[in-house]
């Protein structure tokens, strides 16, 4: 069985978008390991941003994440925020990707997130022993990078301007949804009352 | 439509077990509001423990949680750990109950958990603005009660001896599963290697 994307295929946007949308367990029908090994950190971050774009087009919050095996560079989990899509009060990009990966040893993996992690996700990243986290946007949010470093994670900032522009647009369009996603509906109610 | 449990029904163990197992949205077919209003904090904690028991009998980690509306005392969410059942690397009792509740204002609710919350769940409790948390076991685990108090939550300890004995039994029977549930598979691998 020859997959669609092999070592001679181009790493263009349509290929990365197909990877973002394909269920993780089905990725071998889309690309072989030669293609995967050509993907750079910036490419994995772009896949996280394309997951954020998918969520945005569904009416959700535009935050995505991808987890790769550090040795093989294969994608072992990915996902996006599902506050709206699953009526889910805390499923952010990171929690979505970790849920998708299942019960694996995260100390052998790197997580790429399109937006700087919230307190819950940052806590989960060190509690599950991640080796490294790569953050695509510290412009719209930041704050837990120092805590992650203190907990022994390798932290890389690799800003993706498409993702930053998309999140800024979402925040302007749906400020209440953005606030709920960070601090819950109680914060929206307090904000409305004041 | 008259439900099974009304104001004259007894609050015995079989009734509380049926409540634990019934899907939250279907609870009105099981009991009416008069029955619910007779339930004490200790009864809700017992329901959390019966959810822990359900998980234990499924081969999972015995931790359960129940969320009630502070005004009506109706159950708005509940669940148990699903590390094994859903191959879910972080779904604890608290996260399971919060997912079940969906996008509600948690500042008007109380969460009953059969075991003291881990760092991730404690962070989620304050990030979603819970008013109160009731903890059924600070014998097998503890440590985040002070942080929750500092974040403005009301914290009550209401130990349930059945739940404490069940968790101690599980920990003795499946120490690796217990360790994975707290600190991830990486901690199990480190433990095996040392």
Automatic annotation (TrEMBL), chains A, B:
One of its GO terms (molecular function) is zinc ion binding. Pfam families: dCMP_cyt_deam_1. CDD domains: nucleoside_deaminase (cd01285). Keywords: Metal-binding, Zinc. InterPro entries: APOBEC/CMP_deaminase_Zn-bd (IPR016192), CMP_dCMP_dom (IPR002125), Cytidine_deaminase-like (IPR016193). Residues 39-156 form the CMP/dCMP-type deaminase domain. PROSITE patterns: CYT_DCMP_DEAMINASES_1, CYT_DCMP_DEAMINASES_2. It comes from the Bacteria. PANTHER family: CYTOSINE DEAMINASE FAMILY MEMBER, TRNA(ADENINE(34)) DEAMINASE, CHLOROPLASTIC. This is Cytosine deaminase. It comes from Photobacterium galatheae.
């Amino acid at each position: 069985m020859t997959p669609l994307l092999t070592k001679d295929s181009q790493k263009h946007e349509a290929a990365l978008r197909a990877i973002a949308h394909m269920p993780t367990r089905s990725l071998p029908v889309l690309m072989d390991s030669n293609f995967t090994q050509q993907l750079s950190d910036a490419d994995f971050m772009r896949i996280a941003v394309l997951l954020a774009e998918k969520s945005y087009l569904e009416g959700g919050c535009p935050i995505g994440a991808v987890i790769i095996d550090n040795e093989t560079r294969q994608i072992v989990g990915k996902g996006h925020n599902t506050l709206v899509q699953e009526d889910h009060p805390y499923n952010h990009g990171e929690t979505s990707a970790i849920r998708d990966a299942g019960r694996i040893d995260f100390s052998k993996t790197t997580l790429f997130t399109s937006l700087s992690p919230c307190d819950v996700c940052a806590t989960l990243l060190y509690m599950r022993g991640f080796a490294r986290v790569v953050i695509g946007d510290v412009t719209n949010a930041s704050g837990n990078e120092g805590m992650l470093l203190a907990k022994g994670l390798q932290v890389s900032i690799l800003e993706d301007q498409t993702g930053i522009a998309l999140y800024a647009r979402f925040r302007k369009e749906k400020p209440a949804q953005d606030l709920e996603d960070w601090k819950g509906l109680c914060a929206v109610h307090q904000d409305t009352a004041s």
